[in-house]
Write a structure and sequence with these properties.
Keywords: DNA-binding, Repressor, Transcription, Transcription regulation. This is Lactose phosphotransferase system repressor. It comes from Streptomyces similanensis. The chain is α/β, with parallel strands linked by helices. Helices cover about 35% and strands about 25% of the residues. It is built from 10 helices and 15 strands. A 7-stranded parallel beta sheet has the order 6-5-4-9-12-14-15, sandwiched between helices. The longest helix is centred in the N-terminal third of the chain and has 15 residues.
């Protein structure tokens, strides 16, 4: 197996499993750990993987994106803490936009039930999870449904959003970096996110630390567009400070 074949195997496994470890890959491929580390370095420079201590995980882009099923099994404890912290930023908002994705879905389930609140979302999963809450009015955006995320996209969704003025938007992304802002693989998803930001008075980003420093295909926002960024302690305090210098308050939980 030459280097290109080995790197292709590593990438495919990382995308299938969600991550790879150096020692495991070295044993499976019968090569030295140093060889695997060099392969990971090559894949990272190509923007396909992100290195971690002892391994790597795949970067989402135009050619690869995890589905909702995978997202519901990765970093669940961290995502629950992120959602719990983000919902504390609700304040006196009466209307909120809840983005597609698993962490936003967790947040939606934590919205207070002791006051009237209107929730706008493109996510079928989120709408179904909270529609029975007596104090919540749920507005589901129309449009084409993406099978991968069970969220609506397209001109109908954007047109519907354009008719609203929303107090607070809770937004996720596939990548966030200080240089390239917030990105996502699919242009139609980026359009919905950008429109939600445009019609919202306040904006909160929430995402696992693995999203930081990563970039995908379509940019839809800048870091400075948000009043707050909520993530887990996997993002170092030094890096959190660098993001805070761009405008948002960074919450690490």
């Amino acid at each position: 197996m030459n280097a290109a074949e080995r790197q292709s195997r590593i990438l495919a496994l990382a995308r299938h499993q969600g991550s790879v470890e150096v020692t495991t890959m070295a044993a499976d491929l019968a090569v030295a750990p140093e060889t695997i580390r060099r392969d990971l370095g090559v894949l990272e420079r190509r923007g396909l993987l992100r290195r971690t201590c002892g391994g790597a995980y795949p970067v989402e882009g135009a050619g690869f994106e995890t589905g909702l099923t995978e997202r519901e099994t990765l970093h669940v404890k961290d995502k629950r803490r992120i959602a719990a912290e983000a919902v504390r930023l609700l304040g006196d908002a009466e209307t909120v936009f809840v983005d597609e994705g698993y962490t936003p879905q967790l947040l939606a389930a934590l919205l207070p039930g002791d006051r009237p609140l209107t929730v706008v979302t493109a996510s079928l999963s989120t709408a179904a999870a909270i529609v029975d809450s007596p104090q919540l009015t749920v507005l589901l955006l129309g449009g084409r449904v993406r099978a991968r995320t069970l969220a609506t996209v397209g001109s109908w969704a954007c047109a519907m959003l354009g008719r609203f003025v929303i107090d607070l938007a809770f937004i996720g992304s596939n990548g966030i970096s200080r240089e390239l802002g917030l990105t996502t693989p699919d242009p139609v998803v980026a359009d919905v996110k950008a429109k939600a930001l445009a019609v919202s008075r306040r904006r909160v980003f929430m995402g696992h630390h693995s999203k930081f420093g990563a970039s995908s295909f379509c940019r839809f926002a800048e870091v400075g567009d948000f009043e707050a960024v909520v993530t887990d302690t996997g993002l170092s305090s030094a890096e959190a400070h660098r993001y805070s210098l761009m405008g948002p308050r960074v919450h690490r939980v």
